[in-house]
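Journal club prep — side note

Before the paper discussion, L.F. wants everyone to see what a predicted structure for a comparable chain looks like in token form. Sequence:
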Amino acid sequence: MAGGALAALAESQATGAKKQRKKRCKKLGAGCKPGGKRKCCGQLRCRATAANAGTHTFCCKTEGKSCNPDDPFQCCGGLCCAGTPAVCSSLCPSDRALKDNFGSVDPVDMLERVRALPISTWNYTGDVSVGQIGPMSQGFAATFGVGSDDRHIHPLDGQGVALAAIQGLVVQVEVMHQANVRLAARIAALEKGGQ
């Protein structure tokens, strides 16, 4: 009987060790390294989250996976939690009815801020195989004052800044065009007067 108890204890310990090994995967939101020894659990993937600026990678959900709309860090980069039922999607909601606290934006000011924003090439820590380009989240947050913190850039904020800067560029091109029209008229008048 004592031998049977010892065998049962040994079997119980072996089963417990197997269970512990299964639990060693990384859970949703846990930091990870692409290609690292400890993989993300289940269908999670090791990537930057949608709200992440690229300084760290996390276990996140891919397109089509269910998510919580109140947690922007669940979905992998380029995705947001949207729809009914809520899933990680490349289509982020931007419906006016879902928004509050509207304010105007000065496109020329946005262009100047983009011009001053340091932009570099980089790769995620531990993943030298994939190069990226863009600003650091800390610089983006300090320059534009948007987002939930200074460690993430939400895709909608990046798009909004880019569109506002393009509008600012259009304003500058128009100003230059008008100046060129006036200069051309002056040159034509000078040439006509010189004949």
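L.F.'s comment for the group: Residues 25-93+101-189 form one domain. Keep this in mind when we get to the figures.
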